[in-house]
Amino acid sequence: MKKDCNIAFIGAGNVAVNLAVALYNKGYNIVNVTSANIVSARKLSEKINAVCDANSTDYSNLKVEADIYIIAVTDTVLAEISKSLQLNNKIVLHTSGSTNMNILKNATENYGVLYPLQTFSKEELIDFKDIPVCIEANNNNTLEVLKAIAGKITNKVCLINSEQRKILHIAAVFASNFTNFMYLKSKELLELHNLDFNLLKPLIKQTAEKIENRNPEDVLTGPARRNDEIIIKSHLEYLNQNPEMHHLYQILSEQIIKFYYKS
Amino acid sequence: MKKDCNIAFIGAGNVAVNLAVALYNKGYNIVNVTSANIVSARKLSEKINAVCDANSTDYSNLKVEADIYIIAVTDTVLAEISKSLQLNNKIVLHTSGSTNMNILKNATENYGVLYPLQTFSKEELIDFKDIPVCIEANNNNTLEVLKAIAGKITNKVCLINSEQRKILHIAAVFASNFTNFMYLKSKELLELHNLDFNLLKPLIKQTAEKIENRNPEDVLTGPARRNDEIIIKSHLEYLNQNPEMHHLYQILSEQIIKFYYKS
Question: What is the β-pairing status of strands B51-52 and B68-71?
């Protein structure tokens, strides 16, 4: 697959923006951006010198001419778009963690998945170099195209099937989304008492860095890890004013104690 | 307080080792290490050129001569030691996040707290430079000594009272211990399916880095953030085989949805 093949993006959200810019920076022609969100589509197309096709939300009538179509939209919308697309033998890819590749089978003869295992924001574009990009395709030719594309933006191209990708996605929800929610709850608690969330940032950084070369189970510390019933009880009493944090604290402490002392 | 004042450590665990080595490296004389764990006490005292007093677990009879005594032990043991210590007008400090300063009031006339807000391992010693060290003392003289000591090892000396320290500690449990447990659960799930935990490491790193300059509530992504009922349901169905992760996934997703859509 030549590097100057034409790519069309359907979607202009966090994943689409990061992926489209990364591909554009590696020399790919992004010819078109289609999205139900006109503002987002325009912003993205300006960044990557593409045509913005913001009115084209009737995907059965997609007039864009490209070699590869990358659908980077939320999963609910992905199901709808997949049903209406008719792209014959063009390559069609989606970027979803938990949607089976076969959702694209009625849209084309050549389809696959390009799932970058990362949390993205439009506001802070990411270098894909060390990000695992999980790929899967329904035939060898499409897989070779996918390998070439993914290999241009990252050193970590992984062949991952739909079942494995779903497991990775669930694990990522724990390792990233739920972790972020822990940061959020700790910030809420501090701010309620006029304490500065910045105080926790060296701790958060160190907690993430610790597991780069060591196992999470070997570096966990704190009251539950020590099975320190007195401190756990005093924290729970304190959190009586905050039922949601109380609930989380109790369940997580129980599971930590069970992991270290009862299994 | 002159820098060559003599410090004695009671305790030789993660906090004691990191703190004692940091103080030693800044020129303080650590004269003695006392611990119920003889092996740990010996290892630490060798590192910092101190006398190991491993038999001295009868603290009422502590024979060590020092200017400052730092008790860095688990909270249960801290309560016992505080009761038995008799150190008159010597400075006695503890390092606990959730124990009131006043637990030391029968041990001496001059007491306080030196609580470094970080997760420590003996295996990987930490530079205290950017770590918030929370201090509190029962009188001004002791507070000045504490400021001088803490200021030698960190740029972030914080005056924090016992009530605030407890809140910080609870927030730290969420931001560090529970976060680490999320890493642990995601690793467990991947390994059950022969997938490599290393795949998640760039994501974990980025999740922590994202909040260095932005609010956690502004950068959270994932199915619950999008209120994507179909994916949440499919993940929960998948986790039916794993009741603990199922329980966590459900509660955390509910709380995230409530935070973004119902408050």
Answer: unpaired
User: From CA A195, how far away is CA B238, in angstroms rounded?
Assistant: 40
Contacts of A166 (CB under 8 A, 6+ apart): A97, A98, B234, B235, B238
Using the structure block, give the residue that is written with the tokens 């070369």: A213
Nearest CA in chain A to B252: A178
DSSP secondary structure, chain A, as one string: --TT-EEEEE--SHHHHHHHHHHHHTT-EEEEEE-S-HHHHHHHHHHTT-EE-TT---GGG-----SEEEE-S-HHHHHHHHHH---TTSEEEE--SSS-GGGGTTT-SEEEEEEE-S---SSS----TTS-EEEEESSHHHHHHHHHHHHHH-S-EEE--HHHHHHHHHHHIIIIIIHHHHHHHHHHHHHHTT--GGGGHHHHHHHHHHTTTS-HHHH--STTTTT-HHHHHHHHHHGGG-HHHHHHHHHHHHHHHHHHH--
With b meaning 16 or more CB within 10 Å and e meaning fewer, what string describes B169-198? bbbbbbbbbbbbbbbbbbbbbbeeeebebe
- Encode pLDDT of B209-235 as tens digits: 999 999 999 999 999 999 999 999 999
Answer whether A248 sits within 8 Å of B178, measured CB to CB: yes
A66, pLDDT greater than 80: yes
Give the bridge partners for A91, in sequence order: A68, A110
Query: Any CB–CB contact under 8 A between A138 and chain B?
Result: no
What pairs with residue A71 in β-bridges? A10, A94
Please say whether the beta carbons of A60 and A84 come within 8 A: yes
Q: Identify all chain A residues contacting B180, using CB atoms and an 8 Å cutoff.
A: 207, 210-211, 216, 219-221
Q: Which tens digit of pLDDT belongs to each residue from B78-95?
A: 988 998 888 888 999 999
Among A61-70, A71-80, A190-199, name the one with the lowest average pLDDT: A61-70
Query: Is B193 an interface residue toward A (CB < 8 Å)?
Result: yes
Query: How many angstroms separate the CA atoms of B12 and B35, rounded?
Result: 6
For residue A205, the chain B residue with the least C-alpha distance is B208
Look at A158 and B186 and tell me if their CB atoms are within 8 Å: no
Contact B228 A121 (CB under 8 A): no
Torsion of CA B58, B62, B67, B68, to 10 degrees: 0
ipTM beyond 0.85? Answer: yes
Rounded Cα gap, residues B47 and B206, in angstroms:
35
Q: Across the interface, do A117 and B231 touch by the CB < 8 Å criterion?
A: no
Distances from the Cα of A140 to the Cα of A1, A110, A135, B155, angstroms? 13, 10, 12, 58
pTM value is: 0.93
CB-based contact A202 B226, cutoff 8 Å: no
